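User: I'll paste a sequence; please echo it back and then give the predicted structure.

Assistant: Echoing your sequence first, then the prediction.
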Amino acid sequence: MKTLKVGIASYEDMKARTMAIARGELHPRPGDPKVWFTSPESFAKLLSNRNRALLAQIADTHPESLHELAATTGRTPGNLSRTLKTMERYGLVRLHRGERGKVRPEVPYQEVRLEMRLAS
C-alpha cells in the first residue's frame, strides 16, 4: 500500500528545515514526511469528508477527464479544478494533461499518514 507521509510545522520551521537541507546540514530520512502543512486545521480542511470522498471516487472510477468527474460528483468544473489543483500541490492527486486541454485526475496514494509533534 502506497502511503503519503504528511507533517505539521510552522512556516518558520519549514523554511529552516529547507535551508538546512540546502546547506547540507540536514539529510532527510526515508521515513520523513514528504509534504508539510502549517497547521492541523489546514490539513483537516484539505482532507475534509467531502474531499476524501472525491479522492475515493477518483481512485475507484478512474475518470478520463475533469468533466466526467464533475458529472459524476455533481461539482462544478471550476470548483473541481481549483480543489484538484490544490490537492496536486500537496501531492494528493496527479493531474495528467492530455490532448485538447483534457485533464485526467489520478490518486497515487491509498493512505495518508499524519506526523505531528505535540510539543517542541
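The mean pLDDT is 92. The chain has one domain: 3-115.
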